[in-house]
Design goal:
The protein is an alpha/beta fold. The protein contains 12 helices and 7 strands.
């Protein structure tokens, strides 16, 4: 398809760097200077008071179906291994992340937390996974598809398909543009440095089909819709 050629040839470095800078600043706990009208928004007060996270976090484990000794790739992992129950799931954690700050934090603290399950974090974008074919039982990618147009996500799906085992499962989420808080959250994120794409959910289900995948389960949240995909 012509759209496939365009997405493959597009230089995504500016898009990726914009998202990287936004999250590097947050992981470093740097201050963001925002216009007064944005700071007056209720969603900003929720964000600054650390009450927003619970609303926008996708419980990926509910669709991932982790089993003991599964190998899972967390794409755009942030500091996932430090805050979620990988020890309880007994699942081997592999990460890939564009934020050097987050990568360094995980590679430093992950082995101290659980040297058996933590297998390290690679630096790289979601459409260029630094792992071999047919490596993982599970892959997850939550919280960042909304920062890129759907054409980019097509490349991500192709890469995930490559690194998953034939019976593997991929769990990802995307923003629901009809969610009550979607528009205000998009405004906030844009001022924090990362533009949000309010793409129709149907675009993502169509992309899954185009790369030979099938949506086998979904779960709706207050902001994101989560998908379980098999290829």
């Amino acid at each position: 398809m012509y759209s496939d050629i365009i997405s493959q040839q597009h230089d995504w470095s500016n898009d990726i760097d914009r998202v990287k800078q936004r999250f590097d600043r947050e992981f470093k706990q740097e201050a963001f200077e925002l216009p007064a009208e944005v700071e007056a928004m209720p969603i900003f007060r929720e964000w600054i008071g650390h009450h927003l996270t619970a609303k926008i976090t996708s419980p990926f484990w509910e669709l991932a179906g982790f089993q003991k000794n599964h190998r899972c790739l967390d794409i755009g992992c942030g500091v996932s291994f430090l805050i979620y129950n990988w020890r309880e799931w007994e699942t081997y954690f592999y990460g890939q992340e564009i934020s050097i700050v987050a990568r360094n934090a995980l590679n430093s603290r992950g082995p101290q937390l659980n040297s058996k399950l933590f297998k390290g974090v690679q630096t790289g974008a979601a459409h260029q996974l630094q792992y071999e074919n047919d490596t993982f039982d599970r892959a997850i990618a939550t919280g960042f598809s909304c920062y890129y147009p759907p054409e980019y996500w097509q490349l991500v799906l192709q890469e995930v398909k490559r690194v998953l085992k034939p019976d593997g499962v991929f769990v990802f989420d995307t923003i629901d543009p009809d969610a009550e808080i979607a528009e205000n959250w998009a405004i906030l994120e844009t001022y924090l440095g990362a533009e949000v794409y309010l793409s129709p959910l149907t675009q993502f289900t169509e992309l899954v089909k185009e790369v030979g995948g099938k949506v086998t389960a979904t779960k709706s949240g207050q902001l994101f819709q989560m998908y379980q995909v098999r290829f």
